[in-house]
From TrEMBL:
GO terms for molecular function: transaminase activity. Keywords: Aminotransferase, Pyridoxal phosphate, Transferase. Transmembrane segments: none annotated. This is Aspartate aminotransferase family protein. CDD domains: OAT_like (cd00610). Pfam families: Aminotran_3 (PF00202). It comes from Metabacillus fastidiosus. The keyword Transferase applies. It comes from the Bacteria.
């Protein structure tokens, strides 16, 4: 069939067709039930089929689903921008809506460059980032992403933006431990800025807690405070990429709030609409907007679907729901429960090296040797084996990466909807335990 011909080259043959979702569960067309232990791609924070969200979506669809952003504004888009300004820390009061996390990263890159141009500094165009990071799949956002697997095909098109190590205490690049390390990984930023020259650097971008390319690598206290201080001293903007960590996932509305740090911009996506429609955003501070507003007054970024009223109304309903059900606090408390249960599992496992994260963003790193933390051989494809086996057992988890040599080691993310109950978390842990035991038996370990 023609349709098959088009779909097969990009879609794995073993993919099942999902018929519907309800709460933390998805059901495929053969009636098999899956516990969504990763909220899809860490996106469906409220779970599936939430009535309040569907009602709000229908209500907006009856009014208007599309207007062209250069001709009109809409009530849902204006209201959402106001809500985000109230939720965002410090003076982050301006929101530009786009459709995906990648576009939101690109928008932040452009605004950073424009900020310095408006101040007459035309050479400040480079954005620095970290290895073991993911900021999106478009060429600009991929340039920033220190995710070697995703970069390698496009290297000729990419800038060399990742320049420093992540704050990866489990495998400290300096062979030190916190706090005696003196946060050398943060000091690296200063060395990179000096090497490249601050006159060329517009901004530094980082995921407050690493997602796809580092399985919830969580920095030690003081790390972001130091990063902020280095950025300020060298006149470099700081962008927090909260596409995965934002909107309550880690037990704070924005993960950067776990540390006493004010970013100049925040990049949002995923949890903003909890997967009900596509919407992402770049949230910008008054300080960054000031020269733009008194200069060219325009940002050269915008897509046909930017600020789509249908998506804006959906995001508003999601944020209202989160407030009504105190889901930020729930993520914090449930995260402690789940982390504790998973750490208990670690004591009887022969391949779980590290478990880390905050709130309901939990990373699990697998190793083949406990003495030297040796990762499994990349050819064994252990992450894929675990994710597939979990799916067979009716549990969905998210493939991530780890390992000191870039991102070649094995890891997964566990990040269920923030609405998950204690009983469902027990079920998640029991399905995960079964999966790990089966894989260990297969390896004879
Ligand atoms: N930034 C981070 C931290 C992400 O995790 C992702 C996606 O996983 C992106 C950006 C890109 O978002 P999208 O897939 O919506 O383009």
């Amino acid at each position: 069939m023609k349709r098959d011909y088009l779909i097969k080259p990009v879609i794995n043959e073993s993919y099942k067709q999902i018929s519907y979702g309800s709460g933390v569960y998805l059901y495929d067309k053969d009636g098999k039930k899956y516990l969504d232990g990763s909220s899809g791609a860490v996106t469906c924070s409220l779970g599936h089929g939430v009535k309040e969200i569907i009602k709000a979506m229908n209500k907006q669809a009856e009014k208007v689903s599309f207007v062209y952003r250069s001709q009109f504004t809409t009530e849902p888009a204006e209201k959402l921008a106001e809500t985000i300004a109230k939720l965002a820390p410090a003076d982050l009061n301006w929101t530009f809506f786009v459709n995906s996390g990648s576009e939101a990263t690109e928008t932040a890159m452009k605004i950073a460059i424009q900020y310095w141009q408006e101040r007459g500094q035309y050479r400040k165009t480079k954005i620095l980032s970290r290895w073991m990071s993911y900021h999106g799949i478009t060429i600009g956002a991929l340039s920033l992403s220190g995710h070697t697997d995703r970069r390698y095909r496009f290297v000729p098109l990419l800038d060399e933006n990742p320049v420093i190590s992540p704050p990866y205490c489990y495998r400290c690049p300096y062979n030190e431990s916190f706090p005696s390390c003196g946060l050398q990984c943060a000091n690296e930023l200063e060395r990179a800025i000096k090497r490249i020259g601050k006159d060329h650097i517009a901004a530094f971008i980082a995921e407050p807690i690493v997602g796809a390319a580092g399985a919830a690598i969580t920095p030690p206290d003081g790390y972001y405070e130091k990063i902020r201080e280095v950025c300020d001293r060298h006149e470099v903007l700081f962008i927090a990429d909260e596409v995965m960590t934002g909107i309550a996932r880690t037990g704070k509305m924005f993960a950067i709030e776990h540390w006493n740090t004010r970013p100049d911009m925040i990049v949002l996506g995923k949890g903003l609409t909890a997967g009900y429609t596509p919407l992402a955003a770049t949230v910008v501070s008054d300080r960054v907007m000031e020269p733009i507003l008194s200069g060219s007054k325009q940002i050269m970024s915008g897509h046909t679907y930017s600020a789509n009223p249908q998506s804006a109304a959906t995001a508003q309903a999601v944020l209202d729901y989160m407030k009504d059900y105190s889901l930020t606090e729930a993520a914090r408390e449930k995260g402690k429960y789940l982390l504790n249960k998973l750490q208990h599992l670690q004591t009887s496992s022969n391949m779980i090296g590290d478990i880390r994260g905050k709130g309901l963003l939990i990373g699990i790193e697998f190793i083949s040797n406990f003495k030297n933390k040796q990762p499994f051989n990349k050819q064994m494809n252990v992450t894929n084996m675990i994710v597939k086996q979990a799916q067979l057992n009716g549990l969905l988890i998210y493939p991530s990466a780890a390992g000191i040599e870039g991102d070649s080691g094995d890891a997964v993310l566990i990040a269920p909807p923030l609405t998950i109950t204690e009983l469902e978390m027990d079920e998640l842990v029991s399905l995960f335990k079964k999966t790990i035991k089966e894989i260990e038996n297969q390896f004879g370990i």
